[in-house]
Amino acid sequence: MASLFKPTFTKIDPKTGQRVRRKTKKWYGQFTGPDDAVHRVPLCTDKSAAQAMLVEKMRAAERGEVDLSDRFKEHRDRPIERHVEDFRRHLEQKGNSPKHVSQTCKRLTRLFTGCGIRNARDISEKAVLEWLERQRKQKEGSEAIGAKSEAPAGKEKEKKKRPRPMGIKTSNYFLTSAKTFCSWMVRNGRLGVSPLAHVRPLNADTDVRRRRRTLSAEQFRKLLEATRSADEFRGLTGEDRELLYRTAAYTGLRAQELDSLTAASLDFDCAPPTVTVEAAYSKRRRRDVLPLHPELARDLRGWIGKRCRSDKLWPGTWRERAAKMLRADLKAAGLPFADESGRVFDFHSLRGQFVTELGRQGVTLQEAQKLARHSDPKLTANFYTHLDVADLEAAVKRLPGLLVDARDSADAIDDRIGELARMLARKLGFSGPDVSATDREGVATPAEGRRLKCRREKPLGNDCHREAAIVASSGGGTRTPDTRIMIPLL
Question: 9, 298, 352, 460 - which has most CB atoms within 10 Å?
Answer without folding.
Answer: 352
